[in-house]
Automatic annotation (TrEMBL):
The keyword Ribonucleoprotein does not apply. This is Uncharacterized protein. The keyword ATP-binding applies. InterPro entries: AAA+_ATPase (IPR003593), ABC_AA/LPS_Transport (IPR051120), ABC_transporter-like_ATP-bd (IPR003439), P-loop_NTPase (IPR027417).
Amino acid sequence: MTALELVNVYKNYGGPPVVQDVSLSIEEGETVAIIGPNGAGKTTLFGVMAGEHRATKGTLSFFGRDATRAGAKRLAHRGVARTFQVARYFLEKTVEQNLVIARDAHRSRYRNPVSPTPRPEQSITDALEAVGLEERRHQSSSTLSHGDRKSLEIAMALTQEPAVLLLDEPTAGMGAEDIPRTIRLLQGLKESRGDLTIVITAHDMEVVFALADRVVLMANGRIALQGEPAAVRDDPMTREIYLGNSFEADAS
Ligand SMILES: Nc1ncnc2c1ncn2[C@@H]1O[C@H](COP(=O)(O)OP(=O)(O)OP(=O)(O)O)[C@@H](O)[C@H]1O
């Protein structure tokens, strides 16, 4: 079944479109990486998929239901969870408290997310296990390493039991030692939850090649090329678009 479908999507911020005529169909259980040079429109497209940006033209549907005007909140309730390039959580809370906040905010039961009374349950334990943070459960989030913080953010998304997980630059700002760990975490997630649909934006080709079933290359707001990772890597158009960029070096 198709999890996410965009048809002829345009987005502009008042000026010329920064996403133009993008049509993309992502199947349930598929992992798709969106790559492209700076300013290609990846983050904007991602925002459209998350319901944060409303498409100027075109349609978005989620598991066959129109979601063009759903907005971020409703899409979250329908099973879309996302992480951000810069992780968002409460530094002064423990790992577990942040997970409880994320879960309860999602369920809209929680009225005052700033002073939680943690009430852990299975979804919290499952999320901690999925990212390997069980031992840090009661640790203050401010004491976590950069890699652990990214794991926390992914775990927060998992407490929402998403059908579609949108990961914006999951290894951004990480040191070389944390990148393989995050890749392993996401590979583990793909294996244990075969029906989870994952969309990643990434500059890091190590991440793209380790995880993606399909790569979508964007340039100037349009999809320039898409296909299996190796086919996209080896296509002359990719080299042309990335001329002067580090793509070749990163992908080898
Ligand atoms: N909120 C905004 N208002 C106006 N212009 C914007 C806004 N967000 C992005 N843009 C412009 O839209 C274009 C596409 O930006 P976008 O961030 O989507 O690209 P990107 O491929 O994600 O780039 P990067 O890899 O640098 O994050 C850029 O020219 C950018 O300056």
